[in-house]
Write a structure and sequence with these properties.
By secondary structure, the protein is α/β, with parallel strands linked by helices. The protein contains ten helices and 15 strands.
C-alpha cells in the first residue's frame, strides 16, 4: 500500500524550523515529525498541505514551494512524503490536535533522545544547506581576484563554496583552500573541493564535490563530512542517491556562456528530475542571482553560481525565512 503524504517545513526569522510530536493514540505516537498528513482523494499536493496545516496548526499558508520527496516503508504502509518549504503564513502556529510543538535550530543537531520519524532525517541535514552554492574560477580570474570575490560573497552571506580548479596541482589547491580559510574566519563557510576524495582530504576541505565521471567508479560514499555531486541526467541523479551524497547539482538548466550551443534541461525538465530524486538539488548553468526565486519555485535547494558570483548585487540569503507571525 502506497500512502501519499504532505509535510510543511516552517522556518522562522532565526533559521529555526518547527517540529510536532505525534500525540497518544496515533500510529507511531511520541515520534517527532514535520507537520502534515495524508493527501485526500481529489486533492492536489498543495491543497492537502494548506488543509493539513490549517487543521494541525491553525495557520493559513500564503506561500510555499515544493522541496524534497522521501519514501519510507513503515509497518503499516509505504509512505511517499512530499515536503514543502513554507515561506510565508498567516497566524501563529499552535497545537490544534493535542500535539506538542517545538522550534529547533537548523545549525544545531537535534537533542539526544529525540525520536524523529525516519523519513524526516534527510530533511534535517538538508536544512543546514544554504540556498546559494558558489564555485571558484581562479584559473580564469587570477587567484588574488578570486579571493577578493570570495571575501565579498562571504560578507554578503555565502556559506557553501566549491573550489573548482581542475587544472591545478594538489599543492596549488591546498594552498588556495588554506588562504580561503584564513580570510573567512569570521564566517562559517563550508569548502568542498571538486575532484576525487583523496584530493579533498589532502587539501583540508570540509568535503568533496564529485564530478559526474566519478559517480560510476565509486563503490561507496566518500568518508568525508560533506559530499556533493554533479549530475546531468536521471541516471546520474539515481547513482548519486545510491552513493548517499548530501546533495546534487543538476544542469545545465539554461545555455551557458562557455557552451552556448550545448543542450540544456530547461526549468520544466529540471523540475521533473528534481521531483524524482530524494536529494536536495541545486540548479546550475547560465544562472545569475535573479534565478534564485524561479529555482525555489521548481523545488530546487537553491542555485549554484560561478560567473554570477562576483556580480551578485544583493545580500545572499543564509536562510529561507518564514514571514508568518511567530
Amino acid at each position: 500500500m502506497i500512502l501519499p503524504v504532505v509535510a510543511g517545513i516552517l522556518l522562522n526569522g532565526g533559521g529555526n524550523y518547527l517540529l510536532a510530536q505525534r500525540p497518544p493514540g496515533k500510529v507511531m505516537a511520541g515520534f517527532w515529525e514535520f507537520p502534515g498528513g495524508k493527501v485526500e482523494a481529489g486533492e492536489t499536493l498543495r491543497q492537502a498541505l494548506d488543509r493539513e496545516l490549517e487543521e494541525e496548526l491553525g495557520i493559513r499558508v500564503d506561500r510555499a514551494t515544493p522541496w524534497m520527496t522521501q519514501q519510507f516503508d513503515y509497518p503499516h504502509a509505504r509512505v511517499v512524503v512530499s515536503f514543502f518549504r513554507v515561506l510565508a503564513w498567516s497566524g501563529i502556529p499552535r497545537s490544534c490536535e493535542s500535539q506538542t510543538l517545538g522550534w529547533f535550530d537548523s545549525a544545531v543537531p537535534l537533542p539526544e533522545g529525540l525520536d524523529l520519524l525516519p523519513a524526516n532525517f534527510p530533511l534535517i541535514r538538508a536544512l543546514s544547506l544554504p540556498p546559494v552554492y558558489g564555485l571558484t574560477r581562479a584559473n580564469e580570474l587570477g587567484e588574488e581576484r578570486m579571493l577578493t570575490v570570495i571575501d565579498d560573497a562571504c560578507a554578503r552571506g555565502l556559506r557553501l563554496l566549491q573550489v573548482r580548479e581542475k587544472s591545478w596541482s594538489v599543492g596549488q589547491i591546498t594552498g588556495f583552500v588554506r588562504k580561503i580559510r584564513q580570510r573567512t574566519q569570521l564566517w562559517p563557510v563550508r569548502i568542498l573541493v571538486n575532484g576525487d576524495p583523496e584530493l579533498a582530504q589532502e587539501a583540508g576541505a570540509d568535503g568533496v564535490h564529485l564530478p559526474a565521471r566519478l559517480l560510476g567508479l565509486l563503490k561507496d560514499r566518500p568518508a568525508l563530512p560533506w559530499v556533493g555531486a554533479s549530475c546531468h541526467s536521471r541516471t546520474e541523479l539515481e547513482r548519486a542517491q545510491e552513493l548517499g551524497v548530501d546533495f546534487a547539482v543538476l544542469g545545465p538548466v539554461l545555455p551557458t556562456q562557455t557552451h552556448p550551443d550545448a543542450p540544456s534541461l530547461g526549468w520544466t525538465e529540471f523540475a521533473v528530475l528534481r521531483h524524482e530524486s530524494a536529494l536536495p538539488v541545486y540548479a546550475i548553468g547560465g544562472l545569475t542571482g535573479l534565478a534564485l526565486n524561479p529555482a525555489l519555485q521548481q523545488g530546487a535547494q537553491g542555485i549554484a553560481v560561478m560567473r554570477g558570483l562576483e556580480d551578485w548585487a544583493e545580500t545572499i540569503p543564509q536562510h529561507l525565512c518564514g514571514q508568518g507571525a511567530v
